[in-house]
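HOLO CASE FILE
Compound: flavin-adenine dinucleotide
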Amino acid sequence: MKSVIVVGAGVWGLSLSLRLAETGWRVTLVEQYAPGHVRQASAGHTRLLRSSHGSDEWYARMAWRAREAWLRLGERAGEELLVESGLMWFAYQEDGWESRSAQVLKNLEIPHGLLEPEKAGRRFPSFRGDDLAFVLWEPKAGVLRAREATLAVARLARAAGVTFVRARAVPYGERTGVVADGEVLTADRVVWACGAWLPGLFDVPMTITRQDTFHFAVPRDWTSPPLPAFCDFDLSAYGHGDIGGAGMKVTSDAEGEPYDPETGSRQVTAAGEELARDYLGRRFPALAGAPVLFSQVCQYALTADAEWIIAEAADGVWLLGGDSGHGFKHAPALAEYVADVVDGLAEPDRRFGLHERVPARGLRTSGSPATRRTPSG
Ligand SMILES: Cc1cc2nc3c(=O)[nH]c(=O)nc-3n(C[C@H](O)[C@H](O)[C@H](O)COP(=O)(O)OP(=O)(O)OC[C@H]3O[C@@H](n4cnc5c(N)ncnc54)[C@H](O)[C@@H]3O)c2cc1C
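Model generated. Tokens follow.
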């Protein structure tokens, strides 16, 4: 039986472990805390699932495949992991990022529509869209209940025979093994899926930034049925309606300060709230003064081009990371891809290598603070 050690029980490491265990591997999963712990990126309250990725077809296809996989995982777990609220992209130009996305969705036959801002706005109790050219609508997109989904995948992985080891791992030289709290574990392959901790272990082209997220209190009649999720590529903002009573998420996607996932404070800042509130007041005016109901601090593991890292560091030793703030949704489909790579059945695309990355925007949002930019497409 082929054996593998996966380090990191975030949604990437868990999904890969589940996939490998279900395709005949003996899997040991080493995690320094418990799956779903507060510091991991996968323990956020929610994560968006959308297929639009500008002109990139690879990620669009993967997100669409992942959507199916999340629905199946939800059925297996007996929980609604994906809330199919639909998602709107607010476009300022007729020929910008959103129209390139729409073209890809059309090519791949992924459901979508182009809406007049006024018509799109009717789906929200309070909406201002007079600065928009159009709205790109993904009716099958939605919101993942992230922490619940992470814990559900952990349960499925355990049931599939994955052995969980609670320890902090360090590399065992260049050999296919790890030293887990002093104990040497070896296997045919090792995969380091360590999120924001990866740069502390390997030389990877990645920076870690602090990200504050905010949920604002809404009137009770805004809470059901779920409002659409939304993304604003140009102004680096995103959010969704109330899920599970936590309030409406409206958050800036602007890249925050450098951050240490282990020792960084988990208390949100006034500056973070100001960025979120700026957008709230601009787009959903009735909520301009709404109190913050719930907030979290998380971290992005960013590469300069927002492309991931799937690379062999030494013979049989793989690095999986650099999710760049857009990796949750893809996890089950990415796990299938990486499982084939680890098994030697496929080569990873060159874009995921350890080469120095050329800065590029286009896979998530522009990443710049809304207050310092004028929307341009
Ligand atoms: C604010 C915010 C918003 C986001 N929004 C979205 C979104 O809308 N849609 C989307 O798709 N994605 C989104 N993301 C990104 C998504 O959360 C991540 O892509 C995903 O959670 C990454 O999972 P991971 O398993 O790689 O990392 P993590 O969940 O961080 O897990 C890594 C794990 O490795 C463990 N570990 C590290 N080092 C060691 C070691 N040496 N030994 C043992 N264990 C170790 C850690 O304890 C941790 O549990 C967002 C992220 C943030 C921060």
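CASE NOTES: Residues 7-13, 30-33, 40-42, 44, 47-48, 168-169, 193-197, 211, 213, 298-300, 321, 323, 325-329 surround flavin-adenine dinucleotide (CB under 6 Å). Helices lie at 11-22, 57-77, 97-107, 117-121, 146-159, 270-283, 331-342.
CLOSED: yes
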